[in-house]
Design brief:
This protein is an alpha+beta fold and about 90 residues long. About 30% of the residues lie in helices and about 20% in strands. The two termini are about 25 Å apart. Its EC number is 2.5.1.7.
Length: about 90
């Protein structure tokens, strides 16, 4: 997901990646696969140019109570959009 946002990442092997920066990230439609990856893409989306949409953010919210409100309290432009399914 970070690569699709413009990050310069090279996967060296299953245990190592090489990240070259700084790089200007761009907004993307993203999907949280797990809590650690999810918080990483939320942070990346906050610094990316444009508006990102992050799906399946519930996996992050299970581990970080009131994550949206906490980021808003720090001045982040972030909001929760209710699912079309419910």
């Amino acid at each position: 997901d970070l690569i699709s946002m413009g990050a310069n990442i090279f996967i060296a092997d299953p245990h190592r990646v090489i990240v070259t920066g700084p790089t200007k990230l761009r907004a993307e439609k993203l999907f949280c696969k797990d809590i650690r990856a999810g918080i990483s893409i939320i942070l990346a989306a906050l610094v990316a140019r444009g508006t990102s949409v992050i799906e399946n953010v519930e996996v992050v919210e299970r581990g970080y109570e009131k994550i949206v409100e906490r980021f808003q309290g720090l001045g982040a432009e972030i909001r929760r959009k209710e699912s079309l399914n419910g």
